[in-house]
Each structure stands twice: as C-alpha cells, then as structure tokens.
C-alpha cells in the first residue's frame, strides 16, 4: 500500500509565553522571555530560583472542578492544548471514525507534583488520605488517556517517554501510524509540569540549570559564550495530524505537511550527548532521507538549543556534519531562550513554531545571544525575528539517555 500523506490541521498550546498558539507565537516573534522567579513553591532554599512558568492558567476556565481535581497539572495542560487544536481543526470524532483516531502524548516525567504530594501524605499523614486518583494522575500516559476519554478516540493510545525528545517522538510516531494506514487521525504532542521542588533541585544537581537568579529573562543563553545552563519550563503543545485524503474530504484546511521523521540513539552516556554530535547528525540525515529532501532545500532549523555548554556545541557540530558549508547559510534559532526547556513538551511546541514560520515567513529569534561562542558559529538569528520565506523546516529534539528525534515539515502546496 502506498504510504499516506500526513498534514497538520490543528494546533494548541499552553506555554510560558501564552495560553494559546497565537499569543505564544506573537510573544516568541517579539523576543519576549517567559522566565521569571518561581512562584509555584518556595524556592528560597535552592540554588536555582527561576523558571519559565505558565502564567494565569486556571483549569476551571476549561473544565469542571471535579475533572480538575482528578488531573495532574501536566494532564490539565495537555487536555486544554488539545481542546484548542481540535477546535482549530474543526474535528468531530464520530462513531464511524473513533476506532481510527489515535492519541499519543509524550512526557518525560508525568505527574511529578502529584507523586511528591502523595509521598508526603503517605509518610507524614496516612496512606488512607491519599487521593484515590493518584495513580492515573502520576502515570506518564495519564494525559493521553484523559484526552482519549474526553474525545472518544478509540485508536492507539499511549505516551512516548524519551526525555526531552518525547513530544517530537509522539508526533513522529503519529506520523508513521497515519502513513501506514493504522490511523486516519492522531492527536499528538507533549505535556510537562516539572517545575517542582524535586525537579528543580535534581536538574540543578547534575549541573544542567542556569543559576542567574538575578537576571531571569537573560538566564537561558543558547549558543552564547557565557551560557551556564538551561531554565526549566512547563506546558503542553498538541497537534492534530490527519491522512491528507481524509482531511480534504471533510473540508479541513492543512496548515503544513509532515514529510519526514528520524530517530536515533547516541548509545553513549546517561546525560551527556555524544561529544561529536554523531547521533544527532544521524537523526537529521535519516529524517531528510526519508523525506526525500536534499540539505540545500532546508530553509530553517529550530534547534534543540538548551543553553547548556555541551548541547549547543555538539548540536552545532551535528548540523555542520549534515549540511556541510550550507550550514552557514541556514537560519537556526533556539526558542528555548524564551520558553525555557519544557522537557517532554518542548519538541511539540517547536514543531508548532516551525509550522508558524512556514505559514508566516517569520523566523523567531534566539534571544540573549550577546557574546557568540567561537565554537558555535552558525546563523542563530540573534535577538530579533527575521522575515524569510520558509518552505522546508526541520526541528531537533534531543534528550537525556541519548535520544535524538528530528521532524521535517513542509509548506502545504496542495494535493
């Protein structure tokens, strides 16, 4: 059977830059930072007291109190982002198609705060006082399950758990499921709510976090010589993916087309990336090969770009390996400089940024790039958005454990 074409028809997001896609995109293009002092808990005893929190989010604006109490924060984010995506897609899941609608939502950690609260209750109060929904609120597939229940989607339903590549892998696997004919529609993306006491303390313990507490907006500095770590973010990003024929038959408007997905493993270290960027390069090359795209056809790269000393250098090496001299001509931006690192949600949000760049001809900037690192010498679109026609974009997502995930997106140019 000939592989089916896969288009994006809806997008939704809850991020440190806004409570929907239009607001998030507008703030990204404007180069605004979503980083500030931590308010979700008392961080005064920690070395890191800043994060990119979602601001102004009240779950009761989107769901009733009973459902809100049964959902961890990461699940609430995922459900609300899905509501926006499905609304834009104009998707109604009828009995006729319910068995062919999948839900795949990636998350690295799942219900972190619910787990921490549950341990505290069980140890210091009584196990009998535990919330009866602790398990469905903690498990990493809790978001995909909640979405499937809410929508009545009875196709494949699971979570991808590949650290910071989880959201991109969810989209990639959804793409493959539709191409193969296993689904006609997939709700795919990522969600995370890991700005917790243990989350911040643990990431800082391995040296991954910026400690620029006195300069929150300037803390995440991808590709800058003075970068000292990433900043924790949170939120969700969800896309509606459809078989092209099905989308057109129901009158949906394709926003962009997904044409390639590549995933590899460094098989190198639990935390550090391969110092030569070999695994990341193989993922990019694989995604381009499967898409049938030559390196010279790529117009924009949304980098993983965490602002950590190792990642930025190795990602730069990987891009040079794949694109050669052409690497110096491709705009590359690191939007985590504004959103922080949304862990399992970040790859999905950056796919949305690629769609918006393709549709609007605007490349979001890498903010805080004041003193370029000599080892990071590509065009990182420093500090200001840039107008540029984008037909083909790729987005990189790399994660602890050596996970590498790359998506290739293309302007919708008709059937």
From TrEMBL:
Catalytic activity entry: a fatty acyl-[ACP] + malonyl-[ACP] + H(+) = a 3-oxoacyl-[ACP] + holo-[ACP] + CO2; (9Z)-hexadecenoyl-[ACP] + malonyl-[ACP] + H(+) = 3-oxo-(11Z)-octadecenoyl-[ACP] + holo-[ACP] + CO2
GO function terms (MF aspect): 3-oxoacyl-[acyl-carrier-protein] synthase activity
Gene Ontology biological process terms in this record: fatty acid elongation
UniProt keyword list: Acyltransferase, Fatty acid biosynthesis, Fatty acid metabolism, Lipid biosynthesis, Lipid metabolism, Transferase
Location of the Ketosynthase family 3 (KS3) domain: 3-411
GO cellular component, one term: cytosol
Gene3D superfamilies assigned: 3.40.47.10
Protein's pathway: Lipid metabolism; fatty acid biosynthesis
Keyword Lipid biosynthesis: yes
Active site (catalytic residues): 164
EC number per UniProt: 2.3.1.179
Highest taxon of source: Bacteria
UniProt enzyme class: transferase
Record-stated family: Belongs to the thiolase-like superfamily. Beta-ketoacyl-ACP synthases family.
Known role: Involved in the type II fatty acid elongation cycle. Catalyzes the elongation of a wide range of acyl-ACP by the addition of two carbons from malonyl-ACP to an acyl acceptor. Can efficiently catalyze the conversion of palmitoleoyl-ACP (cis-hexadec-9-enoyl-ACP) to cis-vaccenoyl-ACP (cis-octadec-11-enoyl-ACP), an essential step in the thermal regulation of fatty acid composition.
Protein name: 3-oxoacyl-[acyl-carrier-protein] synthase 2
Upper taxonomic lineage: Bacteria, Bacillati, Chloroflexota, Thermoflexia, Thermoflexales
